[in-house]
Amino acid sequence: MMYQLYLSRGSDIYSLIGYIKTNNLALPLFGSCVLAALSLELLVLSFFWRQLLTLGLVVLALWPWLSPNIHCRQGIMVGWTVSSLLLAVFPMLPVVGREANYSLVILAGVLGAVAALWCASRPETKLLSTNSKSSLVLIIAQILLMVMSVYVRHSTAASLLNKEGNPAFNQLFSWTMLGCTFLLPLLSLRLLYPRLLSITLALMTLYLLLSTAHEALFCVTLGFTMFFWLQMEHGLSNYSHRKLEDISFTSVLPDSSRKQMTTDNIRHAYFFIFFIITAFFGTGNIASINSFDPQSIYCFLTVFNPFVMGSLLLLKIMVPFLMVTCAFRAVDVVVQVPTRSLFLTVLLMSDLMSLHFFFLVQDTGCWLEIGTSISHYVTVMSTTIAIMLLFGVARFLTGTAIISQQEDKCHDQ
Q: I need a surface site. Which of 87, 108, 290, 344 has the fewest CB within 10 A?
């Protein structure tokens, strides 16, 4: 079905072919396609051995230093390398859920709060300007709420350990934060930095309440990597002359006014797929809810309720996905290529992976092998639908505002 949709966009394909012929890009395109195929095979194999994601992240960490066509600032390249190497550690760690370690959750909350304060104080975010006082107050409030979520997580664990039950305040705070996760970012500026910072803080606050071990540190590290990915793509784009802090989610051009796709856009699509898979398997095999520890949802409820518990666990899965998708949405705004074409490229890569898993489906052997092969195929096929939903949620979080956008207008001028 996706192939029919992709082929039905004849104008995009014809324009791409014309661009390739005009600029003699047939050989580079072929090399890029071969590299993309090998890279997709790495993602396919990561479903069987998630430690291979470490290899991919190490390659991504070295990418700026090995490619002769990259001319970004050295500080950005170092930040990208360090964040990618830190992220590469997590696929090598034990699966989350076997043993709770709330000290790591507290550490993640402290690191996240310090990083958020540093980002808010940077002149690039424009939060210290006279026109951004309300947005600065919002960011500070979100940082305090994230610190409070660490306290609630620790308090809940201590109360349950002492068999005192979960305090009513902790449950009230947790459910309130769940409702505010998709509300507070809509109050911030729609410039890239303030809006992404607000989204990250909202998602991290919820994720800390659902964390029991090093997955909280994984989410913090993933956020850093997304920040430097955006910086890297901005430096490599044709719009690097425009400061990143001046770009807004409101200044999105229609597809007809954007530049044509290039081979670099294959990289954008692949990086998005790679980080989605990393978010999927970075802290364990989350293809099965059975791999989760029920302690993850104790801040919200302690009685057995399968529907609510399953919904909360699925929401925990979605948080890293949303972080990656919102960053990809920002990359799309920065590089100014047709969103439809870039989105279809992502779906085409997902379909190629699902086609591979289709031929790996078994109907012989033990039930475990048959079930595993089917679950892998269904998981990748579901990714196509999930990506569509994630794009919609990311577009809502990044482009919607529920208050007067007088501040946006002041900054856009």
A: 290
